[in-house]
Amino acid sequence: MCEWRMVAGWGDMDFNSHMRNTAYLDKSADLRMMYFSENGFPMQEFMSLRLGPVVMHDELDYFREVGLLEELRVTLAELAADGSRFAIQNTFFRRDGKMAARVKSRGGWMDLTTRKLIAPPDRLLVALRSAPRSEDFVETPSSLKIVANQSVPSDISTSGTSSWVIRWSSFRMISEGNPAATSDR
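Request: output the structure for the sequence above.
Response:
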């Protein structure tokens, strides 16, 4: 399990004297980047490749209040496997061990030059795949384009996805090495 210790600071509080909703989102984003950095993909690598994570959906569930200077234990788990898109869950626990909140984030990888979604580089995919999986882990449909008359890499899982209605022997997925790699969005 990937986990970090954090403190609910002054800037994390809202008018009701508990941790504000956007503080959970901010801490979740920080933890995602800390995870990638600790697993061989630091911010400098994102910048040199002109690549960035783009979150398209956040879901936040509250269970207990968190007050000023309260210590938190925060975990990170992978919710989805594809790699071209990601789904990551952060769970926030208070010092007493009770769950305070859970953030589920879904996103993809943006080429910062073309401003389009792309497949992640292999080293980033390795970091993603090494994250622990949540109990409710699911397969996510790929956002990679399909090109005719080429083969699909054998390490791509297609089980459980309804978007794969093609003949695998005559297609391949566009990877980072192909300059024509683009998003379907």
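Confidence is low (pLDDT under 50) at residues 146-185.
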